[in-house]
Amino acid sequence: MSILGIFLVLPVLNGFSMKEYCHKKDFSCEQPFFNQQEKLEFGRCSSINVLRRISRLGMIDCVRECLVTSQCKGINYRPDWQMCDVVGEIIPEDIGHEDGCMYSNISTWPETLAGECRNNDCADGEKCLFEEYKVRCEQVYCENNPNADNAISDEKFGIHKNLGTGLKFRCKDGYKLQGHPYSFCMHSGRWETQFRCILIGTEISNEFPKDCSDLPMNSKSGVYVVSTNITVFCDMDSDSGGWTVIQHRFNGMQTFEKNWHEYKTGFGDVSGEFWLGNDNLHAILSQRKYKMRVDLEYLDGNTALAVYSGFNVGNESTGYKLSISGYSGTAGDGMTDIYRNSLNGMNFSTADRNQDMSDTQDCAELKRSGWWHRNCATGNVNGLYRPGEKGDDVMHWRTLNGTYSLSMTRMMIKPA
Ligand SMILES: *[C@@H]1O[C@H](CO)[C@@H](O)[C@H](O)[C@H]1NC(C)=O
Ligand SMILES: *[C@@H]1O[C@H](CO)[C@@H](O)[C@H](O)[C@H]1NC(C)=O
Ligand SMILES: *[C@@H]1O[C@H](CO)[C@@H](O)[C@H](O)[C@H]1NC(C)=O
Ligand SMILES: *[C@@H]1O[C@H](CO)[C@@H](O)[C@H](O)[C@H]1NC(C)=O
Ligand SMILES: *[C@@H]1O[C@H](CO)[C@@H](O)[C@H](O)[C@H]1NC(C)=O
């Protein structure tokens, strides 16, 4: 062990020593400059509006994280855990008693600690990074709070909003749980809540909406659980709302070159890019009669839509057989093959399960998409995401603009 090492593990003497709060590698932290107790409120912390929680971080590094994080107004620091909370806007009354924790108002610290990131203009939910001589912003927390009505956080130190985190909840007294008691802050920056707390005594069968059209009036667009246990994104804005989104693409982050099993169970993030899953689709569609709407957009901002007054998908043993009818809209009927025969009655095909009607080609492979291919299909919304390019395998809607790649597609359903 080096002499320096021995020095650093020396026990802390009585009273305040900054070293106690510093990370092993953070030598500057122990300097007299920072040794100002008046910056710190001992035995007090905020359990409200914790934007981020970071473990194994020294206190000065915690101050730095606050200075580079949008909306940060202070830190909670728990030396015993080397745990840093980056805290947003609070009122002084929100700072409660907590042994072994201390709050520090960020306005008591010099902004220069943020280095190149001082005066950054990152958006809410983001932090500033300085890498390779460039300042950039990165999403690190969910801006809003999770939808968790009638639930209490089961987290030891309360809710935080780190991107990618899963928070556990339990229901308040008098309420019972339906679903999995978690809420996830997804990489899209939105929460996905996988449960509801319902009043004990209310009938389960009536409690869950069958689909987004059952949500109370003036519900906001967002993630909800429908049809007992299916997590979906509800579009409550387009065409008087109530739409259950079943497919969405807009940035190419999620690949759609997936196999039978993946199309069966669904993939992606329902508040980002995703395919809801053929089993989920079948489960929702078998509850009522539905219409289906496809929204399309090109890079230059041109938009169009196709609406089908009848839409249904069979179960797996029927090959997820499609029923589709009653086209109207501005995009042209892309639910047809190149001979303009409707895709009605077709099975679903993926690269590993060819069920199309073409004798000469494997449509799912050619079009690089799982779909109800016939002699392939003129709409290829599950194709490759290559906006600006052209080709059989890219995401296109031939009846609208040949095989030019779209930049956005969205499919959604609503009771007919
Ligand atoms: C932090 O300090 C600023 C400036 O002194 C003050 O306006 C604000 O109320 C303080 N915040 C808390 C939570 O005490
Ligand atoms: C969802 O609920 C249905 C009954 O409504 C049940 O058959 C199915 O197994 C459940 N799926 C999961 C993943 O819990
Ligand atoms: C699948 O659907 C068909 C046709 O509706 C039905 O006859 C069959 O029983 C279903 N199979 C399963 C496993 O639910
Ligand atoms: C469609 O699926 C059904 C049920 O699995 C199967 O019997 C039929 O052969 C499939 N059709 C094609 C063209 O693969
Ligand atoms: C078709 O796509 C091309 C290339 O993206 C674009 O320039 C053109 O405006 C599009 N036409 C329509 C009708 O959207």
Automatic annotation (TrEMBL):
Disulfide bonds join 142-185. PROSITE patterns: FIBRINOGEN_C_2 (PS51406), SUSHI (PS50923). Residues 140-199 form the Sushi domain. Residues 1-15 form the signal peptide. The keyword Disulfide bond applies. The keyword Hydrolase does not apply. One of its GO terms (cellular component) is extracellular space. Keywords: Disulfide bond, Signal, Sushi. It comes from the Eukaryota. Residues 203-416 form the Fibrinogen C-terminal domain. CDD domains: CCP, FReD. InterPro entries: Fibrinogen-like_C, Fibrinogen_a/b/g_C_1, Fibrinogen_a/b/g_C_dom, Fibrinogen_C-term_domain, Sushi/SCR/CCP_sf, Sushi_SCR_CCP_dom. SUPFAM superfamilies: Complement control module/SCR domain, Fibrinogen C-terminal domain-like. This is Angiopoietin-4,Angiopoietin-1,Ficolin-2,Tenascin-R,Tenascin,Fibrinogen C domain-containing protein 1-B,Fibrinogen C domain-containing protein 1. It comes from Mytilus coruscus.
